[in-house]
Amino acid sequence: MKIRKYITSVAFLSVCIFGSCTGPKDTKAPIPVIFDTDVGNDIDDVLAMQMLFNYEKAGEIDLLGITISKSNPYSIEYIDGYCRLNGKGNIPLGYAYNGANPEDGGYLRQTLDTIIEGNKILHPQRSIKSNLPEGYKLLRKLLASQQDSSVIFIAVGPETNLARLLKSEADEYSELDGKSLVAQKVKMLSVMGGLYGNEFDFPEWNLIQDLDAAQTVFKEWPTAVVASGWELGNKLLYPHQSILNDFPESYKHPLCVSYKIYDKMPYDRQTWDLTSVLYAIEPEANHFGLSPQGTITLDSIGHSLFTPSENGKHRYLTIQGEKNIQTTLGAIVRQVTGKDK
Fold this sequence. Notes:
globular; 14 helices; eight-stranded mixed β-sheet; 20% strand; alpha/beta; disordered N terminus; two-stranded antiparallel ribbon; 40% helix; 14 strands
């Protein structure tokens, strides 16, 4: 019996050595992600949010929480309803009280009020009456619970919550001030904001909505920052055919309904916020080029100025040529729709 057991063990070992062993495989741990968004100002925020939910469904990220930088109550209801649509009804939400853009926007209330086949298409349970935490307080709580240098931070609107985080003091969640907490816990900030290169020259919209906050973030954020400029998303147009054809029962899917409300169909919308999400989660996939290291500063009216520097913590995304545009756009569409994943 001992000889037989020995032979069996050797045979099993040989199988494993030569690659046929079906033991457990190593799996990458999901990336912890925080998303800061101004849903309601543009439709690209909704598509970017759907990308993140699909990444999480695929096991690639752990979406820790969402902070809202648009200071409009309907943004809370919309995001809560959209999270519930994706099975994330308990995700922590934070809100920028007394922040930028109090206007309703072009699709928040309209989508929330939409009734199809006798039912509303979004079913929020949280609202301004829910007393959500201040965005920066939620950020402190989320960061304090994570491993050092682990969190990927994605910001795609006014940077109110980020600046308030940097200026925050020690509290019940951490003895560190905001800047020190970010330095300890965040790996990278992927931010949609600014304008880079020589093709255009104007203050970019996200940055000038809360210019003081944006100046604070680009000056004081202590980790690596990768910016996606206006010119990048402007080259990558999300195809309206995907909105019409790639979602089950698209006539009542909230993303598709909001897209149609936002502007008259058919239209292909710029993918500004989506580029920051794609790079943040797939930085090694070569969807984009990267500038040299350097420093981004904002002038008094919001122009973004890049100065190369070997010690700089800032870079910005680039894209070259029609072939690169098409392959990158294809990756974006696949991630928004969750197909071929």
